[in-house]
C-alpha cells in the first residue's frame, strides 16, 4: 500500500523538527561541558539597547558583567512594599508602603563556556540607594520564610539545557539559572534610583542599576525593562 503524499510530507517535517532540536541540544551540551565558544550575543544586545528603551517599568543597566562570568539572564521584577507572596517567597514588612518598591528579583547565570562554579552564599550582595555610599547595606543570605528585611534568597532555580534541572545546593553551575530575590531595608519611591552589586569570591562585581517608575504606585508587581 502506498503512503499518501500528505502523510509523507508530515513525516518529513517531523524529522526536520526533531533533527533541529537534537542539534541545539548537542550544541548547548558541548558549550557547557567542553567550554565551546558561544558568543553571548543576546546579553550584549540588551546592554546596547538599555539607554534606548522607553520607561515602561524599572529600567536596569548592567555596568559590569564580572568579566563575562556572572551575567543577568531573563526578566527582572520589582514588587510594592506591601507584603504578600512575591516569586514564591512570603514577605511581611513592618511598615508597609504600597506606593514604594520593597523588593526585586534578578535572574543570574554563568557565561557560556566558563568552566567555573560560584557559591552564592559566599557572594557579597550590596543594595545601594541613590548611588549613595551612606545609604548602602550588605544583604545577608536567608532561607527563612517569611523572608526578613535586609536579606536575600534564591527564589527559583532552573536548568539551561532541555530536560535538565538545577541542583538543590546554592552553588551556581554552568547549566543553571538562579533567580535572586533582594529584600532591602529601604523603601524606594517612584523615580528614585538604586543599584544591586553582586561580588562573588575572588571575582569582579556585577552592578545593575535601576530607576523606579511611577507605575509602582498602582501595580503590585512591575516588570523591569532592560
Automatic annotation (TrEMBL):
Transmembrane annotation, as ranges: 15-37
Keyword terms of this UniProt record: Membrane, Transmembrane, Transmembrane helix
Source taxon at top rank: Archaea
Protein name from the UniProt record: Uncharacterized protein
Source organism of this protein record: Methanomicrobium antiquum
Amino acid at each position: 500500500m502506498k503512503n499518501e503524499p500528505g502523510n509523507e510530507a508530515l513525516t518529513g517535517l517531523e524529522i526536520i523538527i526533531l533533527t533541529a532540536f537534537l542539534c541545539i541540544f548537542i550544541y548547548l551540551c558541548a558549550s557547557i561541558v567542553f567550554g565551546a565558544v558561544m558568543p553571548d550575543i543576546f546579553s550584549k544586545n540588551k546592554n546596547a539597547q538599555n539607554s534606548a528603551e522607553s520607561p515602561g517599568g524599572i529600567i536596569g543597566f548592567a555596568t559590569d558583567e564580572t568579566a563575562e562570568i556572572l551575567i543577568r539572564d531573563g526578566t527582572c521584577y520589582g514588587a510594592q512594599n506591601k507584603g504578600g507572596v512575591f516569586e514564591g517567597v512570603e514577605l511581611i514588612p513592618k511598615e508597609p508602603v504600597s506606593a514604594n518598591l520593597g523588593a526585586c528579583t534578578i535572574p543570574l547565570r554563568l557565561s557560556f563556556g566558563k568552566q567555573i562554579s560560584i557559591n552564592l552564599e559566599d557572594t557579597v550582595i550590596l543594595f545601594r540607594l541613590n548611588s549613595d555610599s551612606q545609604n548602602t547595606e550588605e544583604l545577608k543570605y536567608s532561607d527563612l520564610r517569611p523572608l526578613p528585611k535586609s536579606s536575600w534568597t534564591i527564589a527559583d532555580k532552573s536548568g539551561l539545557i532541555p530536560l535538565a534541572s538545577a541542583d538543590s545546593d546554592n552553588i551556581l553551575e554552568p547549566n543553571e539559572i538562579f533567580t535572586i530575590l533582594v529584600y532591602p531595608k529601604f523603601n524606594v519611591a517612584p523615580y528614585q534610583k538604586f543599584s544591586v552589586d553582586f561580588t562573588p569570591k575572588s571575582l569582579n562585581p556585577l552592578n545593575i542599576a535601576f530607576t523606579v517608575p511611577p507605575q509602582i504606585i498602582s501595580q503590585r508587581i512591575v516588570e523591569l525593562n532592560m
